[in-house]
Amino acid sequence: MCGIVGYLGNKNISSVLLVGLERLSYRGYDSSGIAILSKNELSVWKQQGKIHRLSELLKPLSIQGNVGIGHTRWATHGVPNEANAHPHLDNEEKIAVVHNGIIENFLELKKDLQREGHVFRSETDSEVIAHLIERHFEGSLEKAVEKAVKNLKGAYAIAAISENDPGKIVVCRKGSPLVIGLGKGENYISSDINAIVSHTKNIMYLEDNEFAVITKNEVVVKNDSGEVLEKEIHHITWDAEASEKQGYPHYMLKEIQEQPAIVRNIISKHCTDDSIIQFPDLRMKDRELKNSSRFIIQACGTSWHAGLIAKYLIEKYARTPTEVDISSEFRYRSLLPEQGQIVVALSQSGETADTLACIREAKSKFFKVLSFVNVLGSSIDRESDGVIYTHSGPEIGVASTKNYVAQLLNIFLFALYLGKLKGHVSQSEIDDLVKEMRLLPDQIQSLLDQEEHIMAIAERHHQSREFIFIGRGVNFPTSLEGALKLKEISYIHATGYPAGELKHGPIALIDEKLPVVCVAPKTATYDKMFANIQEVKARKGQTIVIATEGDDDIVDYADDIIPIPACLEELSPILTVIPLQMLSYNIATLLGCDVDQPRNLAKSVTVE
Ligand code: M6R
Predict the structure, then answer these.
(1) Is 2 one of the catalytic residues?
(2) β-strands 542-548, 67-73 pairing
(3) Residue 272 alpha carbon to ligand 1 centre in Å
(4) Which domains does the chain have, with CATH numbers?
(5) Tens digits of per-residue pLDDT, 127-172?
(6) Has 422 been annotated as catalytic?
């Protein structure tokens, strides 16, 4: 969590840093701050709360300077207040440091430093870094940083500046991302490309245990043995516009609305006009996939829900046993390596610490790792053997929407690709399935067009303090996803259940006030789902039913009905989730919640 940005150059420095922080604020937004070197003098401004509060603080000031760093925080150690906001300073207030990650041994380091006379001003783990750099400083900031990080245990991306060694930013990383943006007579650093892509498209990725000394005109990267490294420069092809709101009141709404175009784009990337499925970027050999004996999927949050659906699809089309774990639990299993097992990671950001840790664990046990990732160049992308890019474009809203749909579609295509490789699905079957798939963009658009209807349902229910979501089969994970969307952006308690489990306990919750969202398209589990909805109605629950268009039978048991177009069962989760995203969005906005930056959350969860 947390976002880091830095700039060296002649542009308006506070504006470059503030715009960068605003773009990184999905990584955390409980406090922020900047430190600037002007005429070799260090100044720091910090503010509790969202970035606009820091902007207001800086507005009346005319800040000069050509070296600066900034930080937006997601609190781990210490409450979100001004003292705990970064940048942190050393004793003498000559060195400023921003940090993303967690320093696990900070307490013992802090005690040592306090014994040496260092005075701490915050409760954070990060402040020890500034004092450690001070302890080792003998005129060269890079040397002091190199020595300081040798004391650290944990994960970090660090940027440091000093008025005693001005004109440079020193950065290093271990376990938390950091990119360097290259310009002419100016350079940038950031936790991700998003914050600096409007300034430069030439990017260098810093790897673990690498250090860089960055001036206006030069970037020197070294490994931890001090060897200078030749780093590849990556050219980014997307524009800053892709990560802007473009007139929408919220990123989440924009991202929901983008879904038909994203689905169209994925189909054209992975499917020829003759319905041949292809994954040109996959770094894994067909032979390896063909010989796969089991998939072990691990992911968090919404990506985990996509993983649960992947199990149905891979087992159906590729007839390969598939297990699904939440990443933070996966690590406590006794993995039994066996020929042909592949660990699959799903991640929008490609930086989720729990998911990344599982990849490292799996690789240490000689498993091959295949990842579905949205962010190119992210840690998960770079550390996986094989990769399928989900191609949903920058997703900024904390609640994942378009990338979930992109994950589901890529999983569907992958399951067919694998099924064909293994000889379980013929090309003529794929032709028929692809025909159904090509209907999706228009079908999603028809759901988006139900905006007013879904808003009316939201108006009826937004005062409820609790919701239940139920689904079966391939749409059981949809119920989990619907509940997660609602709770994370509206703070209404919501739980998703496999509908068959209601009678084993949760049915006791149902009364005339409880909204029960029932995901009940015409699929193999429809009859059973129908019976469950009747059970809810018999106990006077308020049913909001997602049903296939023309399903007249269900109308009598639905207080509200949201029709979805008839579709293939395996594709139905792509459609059923759309009204659930819209329902949550509308409820949250009616309640006046900040849907893009819900309390306590961050988009990219880079702590374990
Ligand atoms: O970037 P990832 O897909 O690895 O993120 C996983 C979860 O943190 C993420 O899906 C989270 O649950 C979202 N807030 C859900 O909307």
Answers:
(1) yes
(2) unpaired
(3) 31
(4) 3-242 (3.60.20.10), 245-438 (3.40.50.10490), 445-596 (3.40.50.10490)
(5) 999 999 999 999 999 999 999 999 999 889 999 999 999 999 999 9
(6) no
